[in-house]
Design goal:
The protein is an alpha/beta fold. The chain has 2 domains: 179 residues, Leucine Aminopeptidase, subunit E, domain 1 (3-Layer(aba) Sandwich); 252 residues, Aminopeptidase (3-Layer(aba) Sandwich). Helices cover 36% and strands 19% of the residues. The protein has 14 helices and 20 strands. The strands form 4 sheets. Strands 7, 8, 9, 10, 11, 14, 15, 16 and 18 form a 9-stranded mixed beta sheet that branches. A 6-stranded mixed beta sheet has the order 1-6-5-2-4-3, with helices on both faces. Strand 5, helix 4 and strand 6 form a beta-alpha-beta unit. Helix 12 packs across helix 14. The radius of gyration is 24 Å and the shape is elongated. The relative contact order is 0.11. The model has no long low-confidence stretch (mean pLDDT 96).
Length: 503
């Protein structure tokens, strides 16, 4: 989609549709609405009087101009209560409007700078939110569908400002919005791919394309190198599959020092059958999405490379397939992680924490200042938080606060979960240093406590996205399938750490 910032009058812009906003409880139409209403011979004010247009958040009313305006249609979008408007709400409204127009094969939409100056939303922030909404809301994954789509694509978004002097302010917001939204959609593409198109080797190829396209450093460790490093936990998970494992390392160098300021670790289970502890067949096809954490950190690196924060960031993605076979890991086996810690296997379906154990150990060995891992780790987090919030677990409150703030800015809600030492008791093993399952109670917490064993004193945060990595319906800027969650949060985190380091 082409996105342009223009100076002019949105009511006089030629497009398939123009979008105007209205707040809930509006008694008098705003100036921009008055001009449109006058051109439409009072159609909007009559709809307000009749109660058809209430301004409720997400309400969409389509009015045909019938030649009375240069644009064919006017979309009156409900923005909700004025004092409650946020960038996230604005992003969601624009997404829903763009999606509805795309279903009608509208190719061009124009809008004024909705939300700017309202509830503390800066003009650049409004431009970013509008851009993100348009690109995220119209996303679709049709790579393997041979039937032609029932409608065309929304090809152009015009953001119209009354003052030419505003363009240098708005265009950086549009750029940032495009970079982040395209990264989110890249992650969505990876997660939506079936496992026969997104095996560990395919994840490594995707990383290679990112490295070549955005000037990132790339190292891909093969099985022999992992054995030399002692990554017994990761290799244990992969040994039941004929797909060779890959350990992907992407490097962005934006800082002056050689220190890794931020390590992003993403779980890359390209298909999770559960191994010998096999999952039920119902909905097992969804287990192709168990690499959403790995996709998120890879996509975030693409955006970070374009936005150029002044820090060094390294992404680590252990990519393996978890299948049962005669060579597969068994319950009762003991494996040794890269750190030397031994792990008793209680369930081979608790495999994500095993591959992350070695990845976290690698991040510590790099000397990273901060470590954030992202994983579709537990069904327990879905029970606790549903599909609304991701769960955050950490050993450093300062880092936790940074991630929560980055998620709020991105419109990706995150809830901090407890990490009391008492939960560690559930992970104690009689025959090894630790076991990989702590029982049914507090499953998301004991999984996080397991990971904490491999980071030592390094400030670390674990983000469990098992409930938020996919959605089964359209909602705001989300579309059915992979959500690309955590990409925008990680990008915002990198930018905030950079801003702190340059003060």
């Amino acid at each position: 989609m082409e996105i342009r910032v223009l100076a002019g009058d949105v009511t006089q812009t030629r497009a398939g549709a123009i979008m105007v906003g209205i707040f809930e409880g509006t008694e008098a139409l705003a100036d921009h609405l008055t001009a449109v209403d006058k051109a439409l011979e009072g159609a909007i004010s009559r709809l307000v009087e009749q109660g058809e247009v209430k301004g409720k958040l997400g309400e969409i009313t389509l009015v045909h101009s019938l030649g009375r305006l240069p644009s064919d249609r006017v979309v009156v979008a409900g923005l909700g209560k004025k004092q409650e408007l946020t960038k996230d709400r604005l992003r969601g409204v624009v997404a829903e409007v763009c999606r509805s127009l795309q279903k009608k094969s509208v190719e061009t939409m124009a809008t004024g700078l909705l939300g700017a100056g309202i509830a503390g939303i800066a003009p650049e922030g409004a431009a970013q939110a509008i851009t993100e909404g348009a690109l995220l809301g119209t996303y679709s994954f049709r790579k393997h569908i041979t039937k032609e789509a029932e409608h065309g694509d929304l090809k152009q978004l015009l953001i119209v400002t009354a003052d030419e002097a505003d363009r240098p302010i708005l265009e950086p917001g549009c750029h940032r919005g495009r970079v982040i939204a395209e990264a989110v959609n890249f992650a969505r593409d990876m997660v939506n791919e079936p496992a026969n198109y997104m095996a560990p080797g395919d994840m490594a190829e995707a990383a290679k394309k990112l490295a070549e396209g955005y000037g990132l450093g790339l190292t891909v460790l093969e099985k022999d190198r992992m054995q030399e490093l002692g990554m017994g936990a990761l290799l244990g998970v992969s040994q039941g599959s004929c797909q060779p494992p890959r350990f992907i390392v992407l490097d962005y160098k934006g800082g002056d020092s050689g220190v890794v300021d931020l390590a992003l670790v993403g779980k890359g289970i390209t298909f999770d059958s559960g191994g010998i502890s096999i999952k039920p067949s119902e909905k097992m096809e969804e287990m192709k999405t168990d690499m959403a954490g790995g996709a998120a950190v890879m996509a975030a690196m693409a955006a970070i490379a374009q936005l150029k924060p002044r820090i060094n960031v390294t992404a680590l993605v252990p990519a393996v397939e978890n299948l049962p076979s005669g060579s597969a890991l068994r319950p009762g086996d003991i494996v040794t992680a890269m750190t030397g810690k031994t792990i008793e296997i209680i369930s081979t379906d608790a495999e994500g924490r095993l591959i992350l154990a070695d990845a976290l150990g690698y991040a510590v060995k790099l000397g990273a200042r901060f470590i954030v891992d992202v994983a579709t780790l537990t069904g327990a987090i879905r029970i606790a938080l549903g599909a609304v919030c991701s769960g955050a677990f950490g050993n450093n409150q300062g880092l936790v606060d940074k991630v929560l703030a980055a998620g709020a800015e991105a419109g990706e809600p995150i809830w901090q979960m407890p990490m009391y030492d008492d939960y560690k008791e559930q992970n104690k093993s009689d025959v090894a240093d630790i076991k990989n399952v702590g029982g049914r109670l507090a499953g998301a917490i004991t999984a996080a406590q397991f990971l904490a064993e491999f980071v030592g004193d390094t400030p670390w945060l674990h983000l469990d996205i098992a409930g938020t990595s996919t959605t089964d319906k359209e909602r705001h800027h989300l579309v059915k399938g992979a959500t690309g969650v955590a990409v925008a949060t990680l990008v915002n985190l990198a930018l905030s750490i950079s801003a702190e380091s340059t003060r």
